[in-house]
Amino acid sequence: MKTYIKSTLFFIVVLTLFSCSKSNPVNEIIDDDNPIGDDFFVKATINGTNHINDEDDATAFTVVTDNGVKWAAFTGEFSDTENIILGIKGFDGTGTYNMADYEGSNMTYMLSDPSTGLSEVYLANSFTGSGVINVTQYGRGTATGTFSFTGVNPIDQTEVNITNGEFHILLVE
Which residues pair with 89 in a beta bridge? Predict the structure, then answer.
């Protein structure tokens, strides 16, 4: 439990630092030859309901190296109350990352209640739940891929199913 709490906090800190430090507008980072284009989005189906965030610079695929280990993380904020945080410890570019095989990696779904300030958290990592991130394109200013996971609430063991996840987002290294 201590390991995935540390990992989740690490991803939150990394995303906060890099999202605040973006100095280049999206159009300056993406070159005109990008075959995918620069319409950024994160979308997913959460327990049967479709969600999308298509604000161009609202999220970024952040990659950092810490003590020789490469970490990648991004978030999808679907509303003031719903978001996901996906993080890979041992990131190595394009490929498939199964949470069961990457200890320290996390897929998190958070559902917040603004009236109480409390959040429900659902996790998929090497200890609980299950999930896969497939990075299909990485470089030239963007990252693209798919994801799905079943997150488990560590308090009451309830589950949330995230399917049809896709992303095409700004790459910050």
Answer: 71
